[in-house]
Give the backbone structure.
Amino acid sequence: MCASVNVGSNGKLHRLAEVFNYNSICDFYTRITQFLGMKPMSHEYKIMGMAPYASEKERQKISDQFHRYFRISAKNPLLFVNNTRFYKWQFMKELNRSILGKRFDWISGGVQDFFEDIALEWTQNALKATGLGNLALSGGGFMNVKLNYLISRLPEVKSLFVFPSCGDESNPIGASFLAALEIGFPADKIAPLGMIYWGPSYERMQIKTAIDNKLKGSGFKINEEKDVNGVICQKLLEGKIIGRFVNRMEWGARALGNRSILADPRNQKIIHKINKAIKMRDFWMPFAPAILQEYRTEYLHLREDFRCPFMTIASETKPRAWDDIPAGLHPFDKSSRAQILDPVNHPSFYQLATQFERKTGVGGVLNTSFNLHGDPIVCTPEDAIDTFLKSDLDVLQLENFVIEK
């Protein structure tokens, strides 16, 4: 199975439809990723990031081609079907026949448009079939933050929840909820998901030991600060790039401030430095902002009832965002996969962003994951120091310790 439509009620799921894996539009997106020389099951986000650069005319031709491969079922509108008789890897031969030599951006735009079309029609059919408007999304396809934004704008959607980091890594969480119900735990007593800072944290002496072991004799400036957010805010104002390591590590694919690289979002020149000297990212890929909740309506075309603490949606933006946080927007279409900060769920990060706002009038900071390209997000103090040493990060914050090259 690759997809399903379910109704949840009173702690139970009633399945209305399921799609066999042979018909997977997500797997087709993966084949395009492979065809374009990217790493399948990993770099699909790069295709999504390239898509906005493609011309409407040329991407439409590619999308039309892909629509001949898949369609919504005429017999059951809750299913989509593969028309081709190709199974997964066999698509590579077909793609070499049909689109070889087409431009990289045209293909990226075409597959994104095709994917949005099928998934949106399928979602609307599910909303119509159930008569329900409260929608929960999970599964790797809904890591496509552009699709999620389009779903959020459907008039049939009354409320929307997108599971954070909703690929296979989220399965144990659903299994835990199911197990709780099966042993008799009351459904109405299971708390909502809440924030996902579920990883480890480290005590002062663990951090100090790591600093002593790895940075002894380095000549770096190392201080323990009482007002560490004030110091980091000042470093951002000076144009420094910061590796921030605080509290419990976030779970999943998104850096949510506790293991993040931060920079001044006004400074577009800093993008090149982060890409080349730290993240080794592809040049076309956007960065993201973390913005104060007070600025969401100033910056984002995003429905007011949609909480967005997990970076699961890429919304269109308003002109003020173009002026205030350009380094945190997609360079071409100016969309933004923002993390919205509030004092309850992100108290320390919210305080830092608030201090930055008081100094600049800008309600957010640039936020990207604290890792080198291809590495996982740093977990331990030793990981953070190693990444600091291997990159051109200017400053490393380890809780209240601030280390500067």
About this structure: The longest strand covers residues 12-19. The mean pLDDT is 95.
